[in-house]
Amino acid sequence: MNINKLLKPKKIAIVGASDKEGFGGDTCRNAMAYMSDDKYYFINPRRDEVFGKKCYESIRDLPEKVDMVVICTPVHTVEAILREAHEKGAGAAVVFASGYSEVGTEEGVERERSLIETCRSLDMALMGPNCAGFINYSDMVSSFAFISEERDRKGRVGFVSQSGQLALSMMDSPKMKFSYAISSGNSSVVTMEDYLDFLVDDEDTKVIAMYLEGIKDTAPFVAALKKAALKKKPVVILKTGRSRKGQEIAASHTGSLSGTDKVYDALFRKFGVIRVDDLEELMSTCMALSVMKRMPENPKVASMNLSGGETGICADLGELHGIEYANFGKDTMKRLKEVLPSYASPNNPLDMTATLSYDVDKYAEAVDIVMMDQDVGLVAIGYTLLQEIADPAIKYMTESLEKVLEDPMAKPVVMIPFTENTRNAEYSERLEKIGVPVLPTSNYAFKVLKNITGFIAYDASCHNLEVSIPEARKGEATPLSESESKNIIGSYGIPFPRTEVVKSLKQAHSLADDMGYPLVAKIDSPDIMHKSDAGCVMLNLKHADEVVDAYSEIIDNAVAYKKNAVINGVQLSTMVKSGIEMIIGVKNDPQLGPCIMCGLGGVFVEVFKDTALGLAPVSRIEAENMVDSLKGVKLLNGYRGSEPADKDAFVDAIVNVSRLATEHMNSMSELDINPIFVYEEGICAVDALYVKNV
Amino acid sequence: MNINKLLKPKKIAIVGASDKEGFGGDTCRNAMAYMSDDKYYFINPRRDEVFGKKCYESIRDLPEKVDMVVICTPVHTVEAILREAHEKGAGAAVVFASGYSEVGTEEGVERERSLIETCRSLDMALMGPNCAGFINYSDMVSSFAFISEERDRKGRVGFVSQSGQLALSMMDSPKMKFSYAISSGNSSVVTMEDYLDFLVDDEDTKVIAMYLEGIKDTAPFVAALKKAALKKKPVVILKTGRSRKGQEIAASHTGSLSGTDKVYDALFRKFGVIRVDDLEELMSTCMALSVMKRMPENPKVASMNLSGGETGICADLGELHGIEYANFGKDTMKRLKEVLPSYASPNNPLDMTATLSYDVDKYAEAVDIVMMDQDVGLVAIGYTLLQEIADPAIKYMTESLEKVLEDPMAKPVVMIPFTENTRNAEYSERLEKIGVPVLPTSNYAFKVLKNITGFIAYDASCHNLEVSIPEARKGEATPLSESESKNIIGSYGIPFPRTEVVKSLKQAHSLADDMGYPLVAKIDSPDIMHKSDAGCVMLNLKHADEVVDAYSEIIDNAVAYKKNAVINGVQLSTMVKSGIEMIIGVKNDPQLGPCIMCGLGGVFVEVFKDTALGLAPVSRIEAENMVDSLKGVKLLNGYRGSEPADKDAFVDAIVNVSRLATEHMNSMSELDINPIFVYEEGICAVDALYVKNV
Questions:
Q1: At B225, which helix (H) or strand (E)?
Q2: What is the structure's pLDDT at A245?
């Protein structure tokens, strides 16, 4: 399968060409608007001409081979046309028709299975079905089925969307310019992972935007993300299915299987993917990243506004969205005081006062002073660019910025408006030309700023850029006993107190003295999970006699609790002093593999849900970041004057568990270490559960 | 002072009238555009005519009395003009000039003090200084100093803004329509609280919008909020100063004193004020509330969209913003299945599929079915209304909605777009006419939805609509000793263990036996706050001898720790069993009075900052809501199968502390009860601190 035949075809044929309303007609209209006449053919057995251009009866009749066919005809015609196209040399097709797996019927699912099979046998790259096609703005190829207002759309954002409606909305947004616009539909032959890979490699694409409901195959998706991370090419993804309701909808819409959503967060963090909440944030983030001529060298922002009200809003929204404001140096302050009116104070966020916006030179000087401050990475200009220009300030400000940004070393500048409005086209364009994106309204703008500063702070070398993708399993989850669990986990360097399983009164008596007191006795059985409820845990045993009594009582209680329970014996462990109570867990996601969780134990995890996730294998820095992202890390760092706990040892434990999880990815369902005590020096795990699944 | 002379004048004079650019010229242009010719006079000693209208040399020369003067001349001319205007019967003035307290100089502050004094002595209602004036759209009066694009702006949102720039931005937004648009500047004579009060009373104003940096006088502000709450008239406030940086800026901008910001949250919660994050949210929330013809009867939302992508976004954003989606009843599902295409599933959020938007009757039927569901309070239509209409869907959808909303009992409908764009004017207007507000882009739209549903859920009768505003104090904060603190707090029904202060070895010995064991001994001294650090706490004393020893040691340690400490004696208390560790605290805000805080104690409050605030006096329901808003309430409600704790007793304690705080608002600085144990039955406070300030 050659995706270039699909996305970069030399010649195409449009089957179902028409001059009416609808898919056929609109696809032809787009072809004529975007493509040179010799690059496309019209096919329709019922027409001689369409829009005055010759129309062929069938693909067979074409005077030459084509790379790709656009199929505008109904679902039952598709496979025959594919075969015909294949005979005429085509290696690719776009299929608009719906009626496949997305309708949710058995018939639809079967139809899609057959379509995939046909494409595989013919080695054809198929876009869709149930899609709206694509436009390649680099080579000017259109197979798009919807008409948008005419305007120059050639740019450097490559997008691929599983929703045709959202694709159309992006095309309709006046601020977006594309290298590729792809509505991929069910993406069942050429998959989302294929498109991603293509766009990561494509030199004309600077920023990648995706609307994603789910992926089919993890390995190529991860490989493409890795390539993007290493190239530092931004990938911005809107993935629905964060909420329970959203997951249901994603599943029913394109028949994608949404993985557990939080695992996607961990995946995206690993590869520096920017995750967004809605379409506007997706578009604006991509637009800003593609318009800026340079990336900021540090994530600290300077905010410059024309009024106190706007400055106050920027101060508050900055804090709300976690933006770090640069601290102006003394020299900056002094120089600003010289250029600002006497009643203005040189803070950041800065109220320059409206006066300055009517003075091209002074305004330029103020921006230049702020830019020169070494703490500043990016300058955010607060100004509401309207559609109808009433005030000359924007003229002066734009001239100032044009002057300042002549310097190729000038730092990046963005513009933040305070009301929603289509921005004046002339000034948007002038600003875009000098690399200044006009962001959407303030609350969005600060999210976009956070996306940008987060992206530049991402360092691929801190991450383990692998994912442990498990084979498909059909087995059942089977818990091991506590001692078996401890054995496996302990063999990966997680310290447990000395534990022995005794199988007789005599053995209990003699081992107890050898282990020393106090001891804890528990049943060791894979069939009894809630040992305390079953009366199968005895704490603080201080003499051999107490141990022997405990042994008998625990066995009796176990049998009473569950008649046919498999009993390995009674587990004796030395009691450990308590420390800061933490937990480490792993859940093995069927799509993305083992996902490690760490957090504070006890009520913290259940009441405050203060946990962090990382996708195995995690690097040591990833493990550290997980721990540091916990609110409760304050307890580990030394709380209320107490000594700091051994965070390093806990981080090591996470890395070790990650190694275990990766090595057992095909045989483990989940594991839990709860609690694991962290001391001033060292750590000790107390209880553990390992659930296998082969 | 008569605010009607300012905001509803019969005749006005514009001093400094001009046909040039600038304040004078633009104010005249606005007057001519908005007002009938007989309502205003131009004054300028250097002109005979302005824009062809007679111009008088001075106010004295006017042929009749005027109610109000608009002063467009520089700062040094203002006071003389005020006196002249007063002689001509004027009771009000608008002053644009800056150079007052906002410049931060001594001279400016003094100039403003003098201006206030002059207005007081002349009984004049003055808007400004440093303002941009106002427009009264009800009576068509303009004193506004900036020009906006011409359009019909008469509507029912009354706004008052301390920032002229933000006022202008609201005027420039095509979606806003006003009863009053007021740029109040320094608001030092007619204050923000005066404007609020006016707008609450004003029958032409349906919704009040405020951009607020700070208030001058609490009592009238609170009185106006109370009136609005009881009328259920929505008050929407953008108050900057949430962040540390924002507070600094608010202070420097209009010289307002920003109170501690979180106290404002508590204030706004009490009176059902909608607090917003930025200007767009302020405008859209007000616009939506003013356009909707009815308020939803319940806060549950139905979301109806034309694509799976949009539906997924709505599902996720709904959860993110805490929107509750209605559960469709069986009948609704059945009827929807009949009208939707076969491949659509009747969920909420609902993907109706694009097909339906081309069928006026079916679309109307689908909306009607959803509206009839008794769980639905409000219908949110997802659709990106563009400026240039390319697709006929909006025509059909609008016709459908016009049909459905003919029924006066129809439930409220809003429209949610997915990209930022100026909305097509024709369709915005048609939708507005039938009460359908077109909200801003999705993330904002869901915040606005949350504001609306939160507002309708507010019930004034659940709140104590008073605030305990303290007198200004000059004293110093003086902590009481622990036993004194416990005495005051205990007298308000907060239970403490039996506590006695003993002043001799002998007394210690005899009282100990009487109190019973175990006992705790602590120093009782207002000068030693950190008793443990000073070695002045001894726990778990089990015999009289131990108590006697502890007594001596504590006194010795206290003297060693702080030589001249006032020592009341040694405090003996019976030891209590531990329960769920909570805290209650009070801080007395100089502007808004005692603010009660409750939360989980220990690490919870310091690491997780899991606390809730309420402004005294709090009603029992307010106290309950505070406790229920804690994440840690799960612990009180019975956690991991444990019995629920006595939440009622803890809520009572909050109400009692609130009563104490209100009665002591003029003499208390703060208090802390930490910890207070909550048991399955009852509560017991263990330690307390009361800091007085007279």
A1: helix B218-231
A2: 78
pLDDT of residue B255: 44
Whole-angstrom distance, CA of residue B229 vs CA of residue B270: 9
Residue A608's pLDDT is: 84
CATH superfamily of B580-692: ATP-grasp fold, B domain (3.30.470.20)
Give the model confidence (pLDDT) of B641-668 as tens digits: 788 999 999 999 999 999 999 999 999 9
B257, pLDDT greater than 60: no
Beta strand residue intervals within A616-682, DSSP E: 668-678
Q: Tell me which residue has tokens 């409600």.
A: B637
A 186-225 → B contacts, CB under 8 A: 211, 213
Name, in order, each residue with C-beta under 8 angstroms of B96's C-beta and a sequence gap of 6 or more: B23, B27, B70, B71, B72, B128, B129, B130, B131, B132, B133, B145
**Lowest-confidence region among A172-186, B468-482, B653-667:** B468-482
Q: Tens digits of per-residue pLDDT, B612-651?
A: 999 999 999 999 999 999 999 999 998 777 889 999 999 9
pLDDT one-digit tens code per residue, B158-171: 999 999 999 999 99
> What residue in B sits closest to A310 (Cα-Cα)?
B166
Architecture of the domain made up of A148-291: 3-Layer(aba) Sandwich (3.40)
Chain B: residue whose CA lies nearest to A322: B243
A595-611 pLDDT, tens digit per residue, is: 999 999 877 777 888 89
- Answer yes or no: is pLDDT of A688 > 90: yes
**Chain A contact probe: residue of B184, B282, B387, B607 with most A CBs at under 10 A:** B607
Interface of A with B in 409-448 (CB under 8 A): 418-422, 440-444, 447
Quick one: tokens of B513? 């036996």
At B174, which amino acid appears? P
Q: Which residues in B lie closer than 8 A to residue A309 (C-beta atoms)?
A: 161-163, 165-166, 211, 213, 240, 253, 279
- Measured between CB atoms, does A248 come within 8 Å of chain B? yes
**Over 90: is that where the pLDDT of B421 sits?**
no
CB < 8 Å from A in window 130-189 of B: 147-149, 161-166, 169-170, 172-174
> B498-574 adopts what CATH topology?
Dna Ligase; domain 1 (3.30.1490)
* Closest Cα in chain B, distance from residue A63 (Å): 36
Sketch the domain layout of chain A as residue ranges.
Answer: 1-130, 148-291, 297-462, 498-574, 580-692
On chain A, the residues whose CB falls within 8 A of the CB of B309 are 161-163, 165-166, 211, 213, 240, 253, 279
Q: Is residue A380 predicted with pLDDT exceeding 50?
A: yes
The CA dihedral of A336, A340, A341, A345, to the nearest 10 degrees, is -50
CATH class of the domain comprising B1-132: alpha beta
Q: What is the mean pLDDT of residues B24-34?
A: 95
Q: Give the whole-angstrom CA distance, residue A73 versus residue A96.
A: 8
Q: Taking the mean position of all CA atoms in its chain, how far away is CA A202?
A: 20
Of the candidates A280, A386, A447, the beta carbon closest to that of B419 is on: A280
Complex confidence, ipTM: 0.94
**Listed residue (B30, B20, B23, B19) closest to B141, CA to CA:** B30
